[in-house]
Amino acid sequence: MAKKDGLEVKVYRAEEDPFSLRRFMLLSELRSALAANEFVLHYQPKANMSDGVIDSVEALIRWNNPREGWIMPDEFIGLAEQTGMIGELTHWVLKEAVTQAKAWADDGAPTRVAVNLSARNLLDDGLPDYIMGLVRRAGIAPEWIDLEVTESAIMSHPELSRDMLLRLSAMGFSIAIDDFGTGYSSLAYLKALPADALKIDMSFVRNMAHNADDATIVRSTIDLAHNLGLKTIAEGVEDRAVWDLLLAYGCDKVQGYFIAKPMGSGEMQAFIRKK
Ligand code: C2E
Ligand code: CA
Ligand code: CA
Ligand code: CA
């Protein structure tokens, strides 16, 4: 390592980069992980602000890698997208989520389950029929499955994404625009989307009790959403001060560590029952 004007200058050598080796390992292991049953869904509740009721959860995938242990989605969803495996992976997530929604309904605790879709999934022409097939076979209504799509995923192919979301929405699935506020969509475009809810990105929510600009952004987003007939979900709610502000601003639902962290399906079931 050389020092130049107080800055450290590193010469890059691929063979010394543990990250690229790790990336390579994960890439090769990802291919067999589905067949080896190494993925698990965790669930994080979303609470209604009006009555505190929890009637919906978000499914979040985790990978139990035999060599490394638990790996979080930010580390492998991108790899799955690059290798084209995301189609298969999303099919697995949807199947698991529908099975879980059916199990909770049978258990007397009907709960909507939200699934995250990737940009690539929005280009998969067969997706609507696939989800509909799962829901029909399970004997549950499409209303029990919510689909979350990030604003930036939609904006990567605005026209095709809109067509896909229109088809899914017409079938009865609810659409939430995820990470809202980070993806440069225009208001005109937003109006043309068949969305039911906006999920306000946690980068605005987390510190809003201490940052007046963040609080203004969140409040204006809630007003904007409501004026367009959309529900609002704030993510990354970590303390009571943020909850209180969101309540004052009329936010519809909240999700975050203040309510509960993501948990396994058994724990989630006990959590729903307790509430
Ligand atoms: P996301 O959809 O924005 O999900 C929210 C993330 O924030 C989750 O991270 C969740 O555990 C975390 N989180 C929830 N509450 C709090 C909080 O109060 N504070 C903080 N700091 N974090 C909180 P996770 O599970 O690591 O997922 C990361 C991202 O990976 C997700 O972001 C989503 O974009 C993606 N992802 C997760 N599961 C799937 C999946 O099944 N399919 C696809 N395509 N993407 C997924
Ligand atoms: Ca999400
Ligand atoms: Ca999000
Ligand atoms: Ca996110």
UniProtKB/TrEMBL annotation:
Descriptive protein name: PAS domain S-box-containing protein/diguanylate cyclase (GGDEF)-like protein
All residue ranges annotated as the EAL domain in the record: 23-275
Cellular localization per UniProt: Membrane
Domain of life of the source: Bacteria
